[in-house]
Amino acid sequence: MVTTNRPVALVTGASSGIGKETALALVAAGFEVAGTGRDASRVAPLGGVTFFDLDVVSDKSVTAAVQQVIERFGRIDVLVNNAGIGSIGAAEETSVAQAQGVFDINVFGVIRMVKEVLPHMRAQGRGRIINLSSVQGFIPAPYMAVYGASKHAIEGYTQSLDHEVREHGIRALIVEPAYTRTGFEANSAKPDSPLPVYADQRHVFDRLMAEAIMGGDDPAVVAKAVVTAATDTKPKLRYAAGPMAGRARLLRFVPAWVLDKQIRNMNKLAG
C-alpha cells in the first residue's frame, strides 16, 4: 500500500475524452488519481495517473477494481463516474435489448460503482461522488430518447443519494456538460432496428449533432467543472460545465410551450 497525505480520486473511463482531461486536471489540483479503462494495458501512459482494469457492467470487475485502488492508496476521497455510452436514433428504432445495454453502462454502472465505494467513504467519514450527467438530463433530446432517459435517471438518482449520504460527511454531485468535442457521435450506439419513416429526420439530426460537437466545448472545460465540484468547500448539487451548459440551464425556467417550440426549431422538426 502507498501511504499518501494527498486526496485520492477514482475516475472511470479515463483513457480518453472527458475522463482523460478530468484525470489530468485532478492530478494538477493535487490529487492522487486512479484512472480506469476496460483494458488498462492498452492505455497510453498519463502523467500522474495510475490505471486499473474496470468494466462497469460487471459486478466482479467493479469489486476488484475498487479493492485494488484501496489496496494501492488506502482510501478513495472522490469518485468520478464518467464512463458512459451514447445512443442515437428514434425511440421506436431502438430495441429493448439495446436500451438495456445503454442503461447497464450509464445508470447501473454508476450504481455499481457507488455501492462499492460508498462503504469506504462512510468508514472514513468523508467523500464526494461526482456523476457525469448532461444537459440532456433535464431537457428533451429528440432522436436520443434512450440516452436522455439514462441521464434523467442519473439526475434523479444523484439527488436522492445526496440527501441520504450527507449526514455521513459525503456529497453526491452532478456535472452537466453540453456538446463537447469528443468521440461521442462516432462511439454512440446506432439504432439496431432502423425504420425508413425516421430515416430523413435521423440524417438531419446526425448532421446537426456533428456540427454541434465540432463547435462544442473542449473536454478540459468539463474537467474544470469536475475539479471545482471535487474541491468546493461548500459544494452545490449541480455544476454546469461551460457557458453553453449554463445557457441550457435557463431552459428549466422558461414556460413549457416556449421550451417545446425551441426544441422543435433547434432540431428542425415539423409541426
Automatic annotation (TrEMBL):
Keywords of the record: Oxidoreductase
Pfam families, per database record: adh_short
Cleavable signal peptide: none
GO MF terms held by the record: oxidoreductase activity
Domain of life: Bacteria
Record-linked InterPro entries: NAD(P)-bd_dom_sf, SDR_fam, SDR_oxidoreductase
Gene3D superfamilies per record: NAD(P)-binding Rossmann-like Domain (3.40.50.720)
SUPFAM superfamilies membership: NAD(P)-binding Rossmann-fold domains (SSF51735)
Family according to the record: Belongs to the short-chain dehydrogenases/reductases (SDR) family.
Entry protein name: Oxidoreductase
Organism: Agromyces albus
Organism lineage string: Bacteria, Bacillati, Actinomycetota, Actinomycetes, Micrococcales
